[in-house]
Amino acid sequence: MAEEKSLEEVLSLPILLADRVSKSAREAEASKLECLDLAKQVDRLSQMLRAAVRLPLTAAQSHQTLYEQPIRRIVADLAKNLDRALTLVRKCKHSGVLRQVFSITTTADFRKVSNLLESSIGDMKWLLSIYDSDNGTNLSLPPIASNDPILSWVWAHTAMLHMGQPKDRTDAALELASLAKDNDRNKKIIVDEGGVPPLLKLLSNTNSNEPNSLISVEAQIAAATALFNIVTNRDRVRHVVDTHGIPMIVHVLTESTIRVQIPVANLVARMAELDPLAQEEFARENVTRPLVSSLAMDTILDDPNFLQSGKTTIHSLVQLAGKTTQPLKSNHTGSFSYNSDGSSRSGSGSGGGSSTTNSHYHYNSSNIRKERDNETPEVKQKVKVSCAEALWKLSKGSLVNSRKITETKGLLCLAKMIEFEKDELQLNCLMTVMEIAAVAENNTDLRRAAFKPSSPPAKAVLDQLLRVIQDGNSWTLQIPAIKAIGCLARTFPARETRIIGPLVLQLGNKNVDVATEAVIALEKFVCAENFNCLEHSKAILEFNGVPLLMKLLRANDWAQMHSVVLLCYLALNVGNSKALEQARALNALEGAARSVVAQNPGLKDLIVKAMDHLTLYQPGVPHPHMQPHLLLEEVLSLPILLADRVSKSAREAEASKLECLDLAKQVDRLSQMLRAAVRLPLTAAQSHQTLYEQPIRRIVADLAKNLDRALTLVRKCKHSGVLRQVFSITTTADFRKVSNLLESSIGDMKWLLSIYDSDNGTNLSLPPIASNDPILSWVWAHTAMLHMGQPKDRTDAALELASWPKTTIGTRRSSSTKAGSRRFSSCSATPTATNPIPATALFNIVTNRDRVRHVVDTHGIPMIVHVLTESTIRVQIPVANLVARMAELDPLAQEEFARENVTRPLVSSLAMDTILDDPNFLQSGKTTIHSLVQLAGKTTQPLKSNHTGSFSYNSDGSSRSGSGSGGGSSTTNSHYHYNSSNIRKERIMRHLKSNKKSKLVVPRLYGSYPKVV
């Protein structure tokens, strides 16, 4: 953008035009009288323009700044009128006939130009009058503003702010405040015409015209009120920021009296609310210091522990506020810096401020303290309300302001206000705490620093939040208190139980909004991101929160959605609780799921997981996809019955006999295969194996559908009457389609029977049912081999399954079936499986919390701990990695491992080959590393197992019993019986082979010290 011309350059053009018009008018040979009249008007304008040229010099001599906007606007319009006058008078220069023909001028032309010049004379007369400070504010209407009187009033009042007397400047600020309050157009005019800088200058309490004078408090209040009424949107707030107004505002807030601080604090609150950039600028100027200081006025902070802390206290901040005598550095542009602790800002301008200028900002702190002491309690209450609101708006979404409030010990002050104050002040302080907590929720550093459970400010705030929640006097106070508690959910340790109780109690609040906020807060306590979600979930059940939650499911849509989310988290964390079962949580979720998912599709996965979890734990509840409570014999009985009916009906058919006989042959073959499948459980029991049922159930369910379609088709052919044929038409295409379906079922059953034949090895052929998903058939085949295969085949199957989960997530889902993960663990627990492949497969599968929880639910942890205790080193490596991953991903797995005392074998392996020669340590009262090594060598207790793979390992301080369909025999138990001496020999030989020259520490079975071999 081109550089703006100076005022002298702007005025030079119309002056030059005026001289040319006057000269041409006097040289005119036609219409001489009219031209002379124009010349008189132009001469008058020329005098006024030359008077306007002297205005900048006059303002400089009186140490004032000249308000140029109206001069530039009026002079630009005046130049256009003079140009039209010059064109007119030049037409009258010659009087020849030919000249008159080509330059006709009429009386109407002269009258029109004369009127324009007369308007310019009125504009210039009004312009010069508004710069005469002795006459006060000129509220007359210049011709240029005849269609827009607001513009002239803004010009007049703004000029008075620049060059008026103290009383006139105050009146002008009040008038601008009133105009800005009317409508947005007036606000825009004030900003566009440069009304903000003089208001900021008036607010900052400077008057260059009288260096030793102090503007009255009323002038500052008027300026702050006008700015408050102007900055009602982000653009106008940004304009104040761009004119370097924030340092001035912060200085006034620090150094002014209480009556001035009220509107200034309101101004800070509005600017911070509307513009994040203003929040940052206020933080850079450390505005929270004077705000907290004023808020803590007349407040006694009597906590000795808090007052003796290492940082500055509120009391000391109040003292500092009274002792501040540092001057404010200023320049002519209004950009300046205020030197305070932790806050500095330098401004650049046209000139530096002198000592005389600096003295404008020098306040007598004793006078300020006296003024504060003499103020009425009502005024003090108002300034506290305004400061609390400003802190609320500043902290909203601002990390730096929230941190500054907590660093200046603002939390304790806010806690005191919440405790002793009422109404608006109490609400503003609560909202401030809520916004700081909301910022801390997403910032770990602030959460740990400001809301550390052991810090006195955090304790004080927490006590007041809980008191407000429990009082229940006002829901407007309860809602921000509950929100603040919810935002700090990750701060509270598991032992902090006094938080959950009041929140659970609010679930039954008559006000639905309060109850919903309590639900949202509890969500944050029990969600997966909260490390203590399990303990918090148990606490909610202990406080009888489930019945109250069930009632909220019948509330409005917002409450219902959050209630469903909280119920889902409870189901995932404590799904095996009696409280959820008694409250029929699964039925409640099923009833509310449809409407909630319709409005919030993102919750579908969470609801499905919760329902699956409840289905797993609650007895007698059917699964939506399969029926595990039905025995395999019952599952197979239906398709066998259907096959018999299809075969009989096909042979009795009177129409399409050939096609029906072909179908009967296929169905007979299927019937034979189904009866062979019925014998599979008996065969597995005789060979002391468990039958893998998933593929049987899946294929038989598909087979039953095909048989049902075949039965429907052959029944249409039972009668051959004409009427029957009309109403039951069967075509060759129908028979072909059903025949293809039955042929696919024959292929599925043939493949199914082959994978349970251990002599044939793993069958990697593709059944028709898995034609679109070959991975599924391979997982079924390998998992079946894990259940019933020979040792080498089982190892190969585990190796294949270990390699697949690395590739795709879908493979992990297929591999992490209930039977598959159980067989991995039991395969690792057998004495023949001394290789690490099963553990590697499990390690590759459990890559998220759901799959880890699946292993926990299938009672895999006791097996893993047993393998870690009794296996060789090669197996212990991947098993230890598996333990690490599961413990990292799921807190529940951590607890289960602790219950099974997994640290004993881990420490034992960690202490292998280590000399512990400290007699004091060996003779201590607790178990030593050496004794753990000895215990690891002496352990010979067998592992109790059953056919389901759920078992318990009896060790010191660790026990777990599993339930299954049948107890394990002595033969089965012997699979888990390890000879510890063989394990020690294996470790010694492996170490000797790797390093023959090294000394190997072998723990002795008897004695206190290890022996060097």
Automatic annotation (TrEMBL):
Region (Disordered): 326-380, 810-831, 940-978
ARM repeat spans: 194-245
Stored InterPro entries: Adaptor_Cbl_N_dom_sf, ARM-like, ARM-type_fold, Armadillo, DUF7792
Ranges of Polar residues composition bias in the record: 356-367, 810-828
Residue stretches of biased makeup (Low complexity): 334-347, 949-962
Annotated Basic and acidic residues bias: 368-380
Protein name: DUF7792 domain-containing protein
